[in-house]
Design goal:
Helix content: 55-70%
Number of helices: 2
Distance between the termini: 14 Å
Low-confidence stretches: none
Largest sheet: 2 strands, antiparallel
Shape: elongated
Strand content: 5-15%
Number of strands: 2
Structural class: mainly alpha
Strand order of the largest sheet: 1-2
Radius of gyration: 20 Å
Length: 80
């Protein structure tokens, strides 16, 4: 909440007041680019064709996306 007084704007919500939590959906969002980075590294280190490695990374990213959106979607706001 932001209020205004004579000296200026006072911000009532501070970042350090809110707890730092990493939930399941944060991990799923982090898995998507990680899958592509691992696929790229696998193609370079194991001499795999680049297209095959990217296809594997896309399959893992698609599984993460479908799991977070369709199979087990968010149920609502938490912590409010």
């Amino acid at each position: 909440m932001v209020t205004r007084d004579i000296t200026g704007i006072v911000d009532r919500s501070r970042i350090d007041d809110q707890p730092l939590t990493i939930d399941r959906y944060d991990l799923l969002l982090g898995l998507i680019p990680t899958a592509f980075v691992v696929a790229f590294l696998a193609s370079r280190l194991l001499s795999l064709p680049f297209e095959a490695a990217v296809l594997g990374g896309a399959a893992i990213a698609a599984l993460a996306l479908f799991d977070g959106v369709f199979f087990r979607p968010p149920t609502g706001l938490r912590g409010t």
